[in-house]
Write a structure and sequence with these properties.
Strand content: over 45%
Number of helices: 1
Number of strands: 10
Largest sheet: 5 strands, antiparallel
Order of helices and strands: HEEEEEEEEEE
Radius of gyration: 18 Å
Shape: globular
Strand order of the largest sheet: 1-2-9-4-7
């Protein structure tokens, strides 16, 4: 009986380990940062989910194999998106298909830009191709 109870609790721990629930507004960068801070909050073979804080800008780039979905949680910025200049702000959603050139040209709010970035499939950083320097 003790063995069954122990196995049950180990199973619960394993099931709970793969799940994540937290208020996004409570998650902060780990340390002070100069321009960009990235925090991985979930991943599996199909996706990687990050919180990203940006104080100034992000160099132009595209992803060879990944689609990126962004939800702006805080802040406001000018962005270059596939050759078009756009303004993104809190509440905006942006779908960036693989091969789409994009950059954050300038954060225009007092607060850093804070975005939820979901990349699929799993993102290991190897397919990011920088296209320009800021």
């Amino acid at each position: 009986m003790k063995l069954l109870v122990s196995l049950f609790f180990l199973l619960l721990i394993q099931i709970g380990y793969g799940q994540f629930h937290k208020q996004l507004k409570e998650i902060r960068p780990v340390v002070e940062f100069e321009n960009v801070s990235v925090k991985l909050i979930a991943e599996d073979s199909l996706q990687s989910t990050f919180l990203i804080w940006i104080k100034k800008d992000v160099r132009g780039h595209f992803h060879k194999y990944h689609t990126e979905n962004i939800v702006v949680l805080e802040g406001k910025a000018e962005m270059l998106f596939n050759g078009e200049k756009i303004i993104i702000k809190k509440g905006d959603y942006l779908n960036i298909p693989k091969g789409t050139h994009h950059s954050v040209e300038k954060v225009i709010s007092r607060k850093p830009l804070k975005v939820l970035s979901i990349q699929s499939p799993n993102f290991d950083g190897k397919d990011r191709v920088f296209t320009e320097t800021n």
